[in-house]
């Protein structure tokens, strides 16, 4: 049976700020909705579940990111994960121009964790700590057609 990745979902503190960041770096909003009711309680195992969501898509049409801002129960503040923590590590994006993308990220207050590195003359890449502490990898291919 074939399998297809539908999306990656990330809970954020401020949905508008997260949408602003991800759209500024190139994603497109597919839709925004509020979800609640028994079906959502069943799916996510949270009584009284009520959340605002935004679905965003990468320009190639293949990657989808679901951002959730919980109204009830409220989101629980946690420490941002480090690269070696078990669980979701990061979300990664290929970009055409890393320097230009980092300028956009900086306007939102997000900067490379340590700097920009080059991997074997294949990629120039970095991690930024984005909205709600999300680790975001940005990579520019150095092998352009």
Descriptive overview:
This protein has 145 residues and is an alpha/beta fold. It has two domains: 65 residues, Roll (2,3-Dihydroxybiphenyl 1,2-Dioxygenase, domain 1); 51 residues, 2,3-Dihydroxybiphenyl 1,2-Dioxygenase, domain 1 (Roll). 19% of the residues lie in helices and 35% in strands. It contains three helices and eight strands. The strands form two sheets. Strands 1-4-3-2 form a four-stranded mixed β-sheet, sandwiched between helices. It has a four-stranded mixed β-sheet with strand order 5-8-7-6, with helices on one face. A hairpin with a 6-residue loop joins strand 3 and strand 4. The chain is globular, with a radius of gyration of 16 Å.
What are the salient characteristics of this protein?
2,3-Dihydroxybiphenyl 1,2-Dioxygenase, domain 1, four-stranded mixed sheet, globular, alpha/beta, 2 domains, 145 residues, 3 helices
Distance between the ends: 35 Å
**Low-pLDDT sequence parts:** none
Which fold does the CATH topology of the largest domain refer to? 2,3-Dihydroxybiphenyl 1,2-Dioxygenase, domain 1
Radius of gyration: 16 Å
Could you give the order of strands across the largest sheet?
A: 1-4-3-2
User: How many alpha or pi helices?
Assistant: 3
CATH class of the largest domain: Alpha Beta
Can you tell me the number of structural domains? 2
Strand content: 35-45%
pLDDT average, as an integer? 93
Q: What is the H/E string?
A: EHEHEEEHEEE
């Amino acid at each position: 049976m074939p399998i297809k990745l539908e999306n990656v979902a990330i809970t954020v503190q401020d949905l508008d700020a997260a949408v602003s960041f991800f759209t500024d770096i190139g994603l497109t909003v597919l839709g925004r909705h509020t979800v609640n009711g028994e079906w959502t309680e069943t799916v996510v195992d949270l009584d009284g579940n009520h959340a605002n969501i935004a679905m965003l898509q990468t320009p190639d049409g293949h990657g989808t990111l679901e951002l959730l801002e919980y109204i009830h129960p409220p989101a629980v503040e946690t420490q941002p994960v480090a690269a070696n923590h078990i669980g979701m590590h990061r979300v990664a994006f290929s970009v055409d121009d890393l320097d230009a993308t980092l300028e956009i990220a900086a306007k939102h207050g997000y900067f490379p964790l340590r700097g920009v590195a080059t991997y074997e003359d294949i990629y120039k890449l970095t991690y930024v700590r984005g909205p709600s502490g999300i680790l975001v990898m940005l990579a520019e291919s150095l092998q352009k057609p």
